[in-house]
Amino acid sequence: MNRFVAAERALRSAAPHRLVDAVSEVLCDGYGAQSVQLYLADYGLATLQPVRAAADPPEPLSAHGSPAGRAFGSQQPFLERLRDERQVRLHLPVTVRGDRLGVLSLTMPGADQAEECLDELADVAQVLGHEVVIADRDTDVYLRARRADRMTLAAEMQWQLLPGRSCTGPEYSLGAQLEPAYAIFGDNFDWSATADRLMLYITNGMGEGTEAALLTNLGINALRNARRAGLSIEDQAALADQALYAHYRGDAYLSVLLIDLDLRTGQLRVIDAGSPQMLRLRGRTVTPVDLEAQLPLGMFEETDYVPHEIELLPGDRILFVSDGVYAVVAPGGERYGERALARAIVSTSLLPAAEVPRALLRELAGHRGTPVPDDDALVVCLDWIGPGEAT
């Protein structure tokens, strides 16, 4: 039997909590690996956390300054030469449809052996990623491994609501990040793609703690319910507005940007129902996208919503940010504001979409002067590559 097929079968048949054991066995037996370790990116995208399969597991690694971090950031295999020059450590990105989960690191007896089967090993890492996503339904092993700190209940609710932190298609690339990762309240994002459309929500629920998380959960699920019924974004907004008003009677509401992107044309339909802002990077110029401000969802009964239409050009980068980004105040009282945000956007223009939100939030932390924000901060980056054809 082909060794890759054997590895794939072993992973697909392994118990959900034994994926690391299974991949270690097949890589050692079939490819000559001497040790294998899976690292998963923590919720803050700062460290790569080892999945505790070994009796004496390694320490977490930097997601930016380590050899494994280089593979994670570049999304390319990285070959690390060890002190014993006969040995190398191969770091392979573990990614599922653009969502960067972590890195599979394996020690090989030599560079020639690692390079000879590099393509097959990269494919094994991809299969492992798919199996981890499926296994999350049945075990907490990988969700626990991702945690570098204790998570609040509100944050637990919000992370379970998210679709992922990045995804890609032939026409677009998306990346998103929330902070404080382990104590977020009401900010959230959601997306869904078909052959010809990408729908995206950027939300900011009022309040703090579990109350904000509950509000956001109700709003997102109301929007999903309307979207899955095949309704337009204006009807999605109207039905979610009714659901929130029926529950809170206007005492709590959800700020949201609803985005509907036609993947065949680059035509963008946007409803601005609240505080999240939208900016466009075209070339080296950052421009705030002026939208007609409409009422947040749930503020009043039976509100009508009207989309604003925008045409994207190939190469455009669209940034969506919550008020926890553009309204941050430095210790001296200076607001972060549009100019500072524009400079940060230009300075990160060469990064892929998946890397941009984390880079902007690091820049924001420098302005704020403290590592932990007082309010939720959300950044979503959308790169428009160019029109595709529905299949």
Please name the defining characteristics of this protein.
391 residues, Phosphatase 2c, domain 1, 6-stranded antiparallel beta sheet, 12 helices, 34% helix
Note down, in words, how this protein is organized:
- InterPro entries: Bact_Sigma-Reg, PPM-type-like_dom_sf, PPM-type_phosphatase-like_dom.
- The chain is of the alpha+beta class and 391 residues long.
- It has two domains: 3-146, GAF domain (Beta-Lactamase); 153-384, 4-Layer Sandwich (Phosphatase 2c, domain 1).
- Helix content is 34%, strand content 27%.
- The protein is built from twelve helices and 17 strands.
- The radius of gyration is 22 Å and the shape is globular.
Give a quick summary of the entry:
With 391 residues, the chain is an alpha+beta fold.
Tally of strands:
17
Name of the CATH class of the largest domain: Alpha Beta
Number of domains: 2
Biggest sheet layout: 6 strands, antiparallel
Indicate the radius of gyration in whole angstroms. Answer: 22 Å
Number of helices: 12
Q: What coarse outline follows from CA principal-axis ratios?
A: globular
What is the topology, as strand order, of the major beta sheet? 3-2-1-6-5-4
